[in-house]
Write a structure and sequence with these properties.
This is Clustered mitochondria protein homolog. By secondary structure, this protein is an alpha+beta fold. The chain contains 40 helices and 25 strands. A hairpin with a 2-residue loop joins strand 15 and strand 16.
Length: 1245
């Protein structure tokens, strides 16, 4: 997870920072570094249009500088040009530092170039991108609203200035100012209300950019006739301006001009301008349109401002990873765009259909690039990352076409499950057991799991990065209930009629096994990193060979001479303990659980690495222990047992400590031998009587690793949950936490059982999320089976009926499915009770856990709905759904409305009967139609594919990142900062600006600058972290929420508290949508909000925040916990500031009791609480006396005048008699004196 928010705002402000001298030195070093490496170039524009400044590094190529000019708002009209220096044209691929004579402040000239067909299309696409605005809707995309960011919408108008660290306001003085309380995001906030799904997209989010044209597209006069090509014509365009005028424009090698053509007449000549001011020719299409249409010129300025109001990262496209698609989206109107159907032509030209890419050759060529130095490795990793993203995008489109039946199978006569497809040079197959390969392991269930394991194997070998060992580009796409595997094509694989190309492993379950020496050598390098054991196997003819990988893994020699490794689903050994206990017919006889559905129960690679490291530590400890024992024995044998002798022995032992440590260092780790046989317990043949000892050792290693998982790793994870080392917020976070520790998801039931046994309230949220995750995964499988048999027209009805049965039973216990005529819909038989039983059965079978019959009632509805939508790929309409049954008041209101409707109808009918023929008829009333189910098919806006890919890693970037974090934790701030900045540069070059890994790097740097009191740098990096996380992880992803919470913390520290509160309210909305109330981390957020509101003197609202934080801590930790006591102490202060002295006294009593019992009377916190308690008690007595005096005065006045006395209550002292500021100031002063000796300067929240 990302960096969590600091425990409280006050604690954050008191974090120790380095001295100003050290900070200044670091900053100056960085500035010198930038000054040495940065060129500040001046680019002069043509026709004396001015000049612009461009910052560039000496390693940037000229085409990078050109791209910066194209993307700049001031020069967006240029796209076809070249740069000159000293009158010489610069080569686009030349690096800036290699240009002779150029200095850091040189002057370049922009010269407009002649257009080619490609340049013309680029210029038109640039105009399309600009007119679309920052959020470019693409109806052809797989999902709706991919890569959204709400930061600009949430930020809104900023009316606060950043306050430098040395100019902080006097908070003590500000607390008692008489100025009116500022309105904030939490003014009139309802702390008990639930988050409404209709507010998923902020109301301030402006999606649509200002319109500049009604439409534009390619003219029907295309392609250009040969006679006009000789005159330089490239393309013909047609525009409809906002003035409703149709304009035909020619794209020529010299630029663009208005021609005399119309829809009925072709006249490509230049149209004469009606006046000197109105041009009809220009090198730039944008400039031409500004002269042709005054409204275009006006609105284009508004459009540019609209775009520049957004952060740069909000506008950039997500290119190197999949964009995040929200599960709840708003309906948006479909727009008319003539150029949209012509995108392929505008992007690739007339040859786009014939220019299919050879994905495999590109991928292997990139991997074979040199990697001798850092620069070469960065270039190589960047190209591989970019290609992987492009391959994934093409694979998703192809997989959707396969499922939708658009592509014809290569083997149409075979069963559907074994069909194979080729599309766009990508090979597609379905993730089912079409050929009976996994019949003994579980059939389709095992085949489905094997596809995911194969992808994991590809990722592992890619990370091992063995030179000469090739893997295929691989992507898994789940769409409409079907799993499709996409792979790059091995050269020559379809032309071979025999199996001679398989030179390693077996294709026929061990009848014939090959073991090519070169392959074995290459795999040996990988096996060392992956701890794989070389093991003998015997084929059907009795021949013995040695393999590193499992029998099913195949080594293939491609027609290009490269060695490819395929079918990597058994790269890790079997989880034998689980398989023997849960996945065999004899297992589970006692607890009557069904047999696990398949035997592809493998251990995760993370677990194997953890176990190997654990055994290595034990081995080292054993080695050092033996050395110590030997030395002790020798000393005991030679030293006399006298007091002097004992003292001498101790001295010698202490004196030889350094020697012992040196000997520890001399232990050769290479002597430690532990490897794992992936074929252990799989029934692979071996020669009888031979290798029995090594086979037994391999089996013991695998069994010990399996026991290590069940007996050590899983319980330790539960302990981490209880101590909040790990605090998941949703199912995805829980899944990542388990996978990082090597725990398979089949152990979810065991984790819940351990939590139930512990009876620890601190683990309640883990149990809720774990049960929700089991229900989500079971629901995904059931829904996937239903969707497989659905026609395209039934998908929305199927999903809505499933959701009604799961979440809408309270609203309608017997929902009826909507079925189209003529379709055989199996989903229509689903009922709430049958679905509940199916989910219970799936959870019992897959997670070994018995769900109670009322588990649906205990689910958190919206969080569970969110999880199912994200896992299946459902995109719902973002609106409020009514899950509960109507109340009696609502039913009565409906009856009244129906009666009023019927009465109005009757009156209208009676009145109509009185009218004569030909007269005006009475008004008709539309009947009120009420929804009978929670969901209707129209609520399902999209079903998008879910994608898994073998993501590549940048080893150097990750190592620099971890080293930087370690240096910071050890107190070396300057070194850590330099390492993290270097890591960020590597991340941006390899992954790009918009990537989850880059987002983490931004967040880490922001936190360091925040602690160094560099507010502007911290805010800049944190905003980038927010946007990158929103667009690649999701607007409601836990990582995104943490980045928003930290951004709010940084803004408050910088003096912009109102803006900080907007960010925190935004994060809090999604927090309650994801989990709801009661998460342990929510108390921290509430405390931070309370402190911020206190600084703005909104005491009533801040008290509500502290009160809610106390309730959360009390429920989770108990009333007698120190943190709960601290919360009540803070709450007492809040009530005091509010003037609620009686509530403050009650809260302080709770805090004092906890501190006294847990910390003792001498603890500074107890003393501070005792002082507050005494002052609040005396104040309460004084208040009571004052109330009696006031009542006595009123009684005397009333008796004198004979009026009736009305008793009044006074809970607080009049402001003029006991000012709050004097009370708080006095208590704080006394508290400071009491705790100065032991805890000077220490502030606790």
């Amino acid at each position: 997870m990302s960096e969590k928010p600091v425990e409280s705002v006050e604690a954050a402000e008191n974090q120790p920072v380095h001295s100003e001298v050290n900070d200044t030195v670091v900053t100056e070093d960085q500035e010198d570094l930038v000054a040495e490496e940065t060129y500040q170039l001046t680019v002069c524009l043509p026709r004396e249009s001015g000049q612009i400044q461009v910052l560039a590094s000496p390693r940037e190529a000229i085409h990078d500088i050109k791209q910066s000019i194209i993307e700049s708002p001031e020069t967006c009209i240029y796209s076809c040009f070249y740069l000159t220096f000293n009158g010489q044209k610069l080569n686009d691929f030349e690096e800036l530092g290699d240009i002779e004579g150029i200095t850091t402040e040189s002057q370049l000239y922009l010269v407009e170039d002649k257009y080619t067909d490609r340049d013309s299309r680029i210029h038109i696409n640039r105009l399309r991108d600009l007119l679309a605005g920052p959020y470019k809707p693409n109806p052809g995309d797989a999902g709706v609203d991919g890569g959204l960011s709400f930061l600009t919408a949430v930020t809104g108008k900023i009316d606060e200035e950043i306050v430098p660290a040395g100019e902080k306001k006097d908070e003590e003085h500000e607390l008692f100012s008489d100025a009116p309380v500022a309105e904030t995001a939490f003014t009139n906030y309802d702390f008990d209300a639930k988050s409404h799904l209709s507010q998923f997209v902020p109301t301030s989010f402006q999606r649509t950019a200002p319109q500049c044209l009604k439409s534009f597209g390619l003219s029907g006069w295309n392609p250009v006739p040969q006679s006009q090509k000789l005159k330089g014509d490239l393309l013909y365009l047609v525009f409809t301006t906002l003035e409703n005028e149709t304009v035909h424009i020619t794209s020529n090698v010299r630029g663009f001009f208005v021609n005399n053509s119309s829809n009925n007449k072709f006249d490509p000549t230049v149209k004469r301008a009606p006046s000197a001011e109105k041009l009809t020719e220009s090198h730039s299409l944008i400039t031409l349109l500004q002269h042709v249409s005054p409204l275009f010129a006006t609105n284009f300025e508004k459009l540019q401002k609209f775009i520049t109001d957004h952060h740069m990262l909000e506008v950039l496209p997500v290119n190197t990873t999949l964009p995040a698609y929200p599960w709840a989206v708003k309906k948006t109107p479909h727009t008319f765009d003539l150029t949209r159907p012509a995108e392929a032509f505008l992007n690739y030209g007339t040859d786009s259909v014939d220019s299919l890419r050879d994905w495999n050759d590109e991928l292997q060529s990139h991997r074979e690039l040199p990697r001798t130095n850092l620069q070469e490795r960065v270039l190589r990793e960047r190209l591989i990352n970019k290609l992987q993203a492009e391959f994934t995008d093409a694979a998703v489109k192809g997989a959707m076409a396969v499922v939708e039946g658009t592509i014809v199978a290569l083997n149409p006569l075979e069963p559907e499950g074994s069909h194979m497809y080729v599309y766009n040079n990508i090979f597609f197959s379905k993730g089912s057991d079409g050929r009976g390969t996994f019949e003994k392991l579980g059939g389709d269930e095992a085949a489905h799991v094997a596809t995911g394991k194969d992808l994991e194997g590809v990722r592992i070998l890619n990370n091992a990065d063995v030179e000469g060992l090739c893997t295929l580009g691989s992507v898994i796409v789940d769409y409409k209930g079907v799993r499709v595997v996409a792979q790059s094509i091995v050269p020559g694989i379809f032309r071979r009629q025999d199996e001679t190309s398989i030179v390693y492993g077996s294709v026929d379950n061990g009848e014939k096994i090959s073991a090519d020496e070169k392959f074995h050598e290459l795999l040996g390098a990988a096996a060392k990193a992956l701890h794989l054991a070389a093991h003998p196997v015997v084929d059907g003819e009795g021949n013995e060979v040695e393999l590193y990988t499992s029998l099913e893994t195949k080594g293939l020699l491609g027609a290009d001479g490269r060695r490819y490794i395929l079918d990597l689903y058994r790269l890790n050994p079997v989880d034998i303990e689980f398989q023997e206990n849960e996945a065999t017919e004899t297992s589970d006889a006692d607890n009557k659980l069904p047999v696990y559905p398949h035997k592809m129960t493998l251990l995760r690679p993370e677990l194997m690495a953890l176990y190997w490291e654990q055994k290595l530590r034990e081995w080292v400890k054993e080695k050092t222990g033996k050395t110590d024992d030997t030395k002790d024995a020798e000393q005991q044998a030679t030293t006399p047992e006298s007091e002097e002798g004992k003292e001498q022995t101790k001295k010698e032992q202490n004196g030889n400590a350094a020697e012992n440590s040196e000997e520890e260092v001399k232990i050769d780790v290479n002597d430690f031998k532990l490897s794992f046989n992936p074929d252990a317990f799989t029934g692979v043949k071996t020669k009888e009587g031979e290798h029995e000892e090594s086979i037994r050792e391999h089996e013991n290693n695998v069994r010990d690793a399996s026991k290590f998982l069940a007996e050590s790793v899983i319980p330790s994870l539960v302990l981490d949950f209880s101590s909040y080392v790990v605090s998941p917020l949703d199912g995805d976070a829980l899944t990542k936490a388990m996978h990082q520790r090597g725990i398979n998801m089949r152990y979810l039931g065991k984790i819940v059982q351990l939590v139930e046994i512990s009876k620890d309230n601190r683990l309640d949220h883990v149990k809720v999320i774990a049960i929700q995750e089991m229900v989500t995964r079971a629901s995904k499988r059931i829904l996937r089976n239903l969707l497989t048999s659905c026609a395209i027209t039934d998908i929305s009805a199927c999903i809505s009926h499933f959701l009604n049965c799961l979440f809408g039973a309270k609203f309608n216990p017997k929902p009826e499915a909507e079925v189209f005529a003529g379709s055989s819909a199996t989903y229509a038989d689903l009922t709430p009770s049958s679905l509940r039983q199916q989910i219970q059965s799936e959870v019992q079978k897959r997670f070994r856990y018995n769900l109670p019959d009322d588990f649906v009632d205990n689910l958190k509805t919206v969080p569970a709905l969110r999880e199912i939508c994200l896992r299946v790929g459902i995109q719902l309409e973002a609106k409020d759904y009514h899950f509960e049954a109507y109340s009696e008041e609502q039913l009565a209101q409906f009856s009244a409305e129906d009666a009023a409707f019927e009465k109005a109808q009757a009156q209208a009918a009676a009145k109509a009967n009185k009218h004569k023929k030909g007269e005006k008829k009475a008004t008709k009333f539309d009947k009120i139609i009420r929804q009978t189910t929670v969901f209707v098919p129209d609520d399902i806006l999209n079903l998008k594919p879910t994608v898994k890919q073998a993501n590549t890693r940048s080893v150097f970037a990750e190592e620099a990142f971890e080293a930087g974090k370690m240096s910071i934790s050890q107190g070396h701030r300057q070194l850590g900062l330099e390492l993290l900045l270097e890591s960020l540069a590597l991340h941006e070059q390899t992954y790009g600006f918009l990537h989850p890994e880059t987002s983490k790097c931004y967040a880490a740097l922001a936190m360091i600058y925040y602690h160094g009191e560099d507010s502007e740098a911290a805010l800049d990096f944190q905003r980038k972290a927010v946007i990158a996380s929103e667009r690649t992880c999701g607007v409601d992803h836990p990582e995104t929420l943490h980045t928003y919470l930290n951004l709010g913390l940084f803004e408050h520290s910088a003096g912009r508290t109102k803006l900080a509160l907007r960010y925190l309210r935004h994060a809090l909305y999604y927090w309650h949508l994801i989990f709801g109330a009661g998460h342990p981390d929510s108390a921290t957020a509430d405390n931070n909000i309370g402190v911020m509101l206190q600084s703005l003197r909104d005491y009533p609202t801040s008290a509500k925040c502290f009160e809610r934080a106390c309730k959360t801590q009390e429920v989770i930790l108990g009333k007698d916990h120190v943190l709960t006591g601290t919360g009540y102490h803070v709450l007492a202060k809040a009530f005091t500031l509010q003037g609620e002295f009686e509530k403050a006294l009650n809260a302080e009593r709770v805090a004092h009791e906890v501190f006294t019992a847990k910390l003792g009377e001498e603890d500074p916190r107890t003393k501070e609480s005792d002082l507050w308690l005494k002052e609040l008690t005396s104040n309460a007595l004084f208040t009571a006396k004052q109330a009696e005096v006031e009542q006595a005065k009123l009684a005397q006045k009333a008796s004198e005048s004979g009026a009736k006395i009305q008793q009044t209550k006074s809970n607080a002292v009049p402001r003029g008699e006991l000012p709050i500021d004097q009370l708080v100031q006095y208590i704080n002063e006394e508290s400071g004196k009491a705790s100065a000796k032991k805890s000077k300067g220490k502030r606790r929240q």
